Amino acid sequence: MKIRDRQNILWHITFIVLVLLFLYPIIYAFFTSFKTLPEALNSTTKLLPKEPTTEAYSNILSKIPIVRITINTFVIATIVTVFKVITGVLASYSFVFFEFKGKKAMYFVLISTIFIPFTVTMIPNFITISNIGLRDQILGVALPQLADATGIFLLRQHMRGIPKSLLEVAKLEKTPHLKILRTIVVPIIKPAILSIGIIFFINSWNEFVWPSLILKSQENYTLSLALQMFVSSEGGTDIPVAMAISVLTMALPLAIFAFCQKHIINTFAQSGIKG
Question: What is this structure's pTM?
């Protein structure tokens, strides 16, 4: 056997082990959600349940309004995603195709906000949301997240790869900028918009800290907050129920990522080599 073949086998084995390590928590959560509480607490129990049961899922339906909570999570994630994409596309178009004084400085300041910790803006945002009467409302969770510097950076990188000659022809015909954006720019970078939108959606779907500060009523909870209801730091955690909510929480993001992973990976790969 050649040395290169041995190296390839070694790399494949390494990657398989890493994949299994990353997948194990997901597999554990899935199978544990079908166990009874005594079996889940038994340290000698195997991964697969002895007598599979849907009792954990029944408990969720009886104890919390899981359908309403899922809808809340979906609405928040959708609002955040749509506005982040819209603001990202408009801002990126301005930074790439418009010339105005202070453009580089403004772009630098905007991108530098990526490195500001969330804890710095958390309190001012909380005070603002409380003062305008949006605390304990899903709109209060979405409002501070309607724009994102990371999305602007990624979309700008893709727009810089568009030949400016395409836009010059449209400008000669006195085509409005919004029409140029809609008919020329957006179709070209559509895969990037889709990928970045998916990332925004998943991040918003999984968010916990900010919703936990704003939302207090159970009917306004998101799935992340619902999970926390069944996790106790002092013991007594209903493990199968907690795992069942975890499965419900990660099902949609995993499905979206599995379906669109090629676009997501290509978006980040191309953003680093353009312009």
Answer: 0.84
